[in-house]
Predict the structure.
Amino acid sequence: MHSYSCWRERERERRVTMIYPQNYATLFHQKMRLKKLCMSALIHGLVAVMSAHGLSKSHTEMC
């Protein structure tokens, strides 16, 4: 029973990918873009934290 439903699901997936290969591609691209966005956000956050630390350090040195 379970294996049959699993097979049916796989068949449906295969049919969908056969009909909409571009949909599959766009899904993949969306995932990649999300990853890139997350990475850039992380980097920007790190840079902001680092610059903030640097600014506070230089500020205390000036005072």
In short: The radius of gyration is 24 Å. Helices lie at 2-19, 21-62. The mean pLDDT is 78. The CA atoms of residues 47 and 53 lie 10 Å apart.
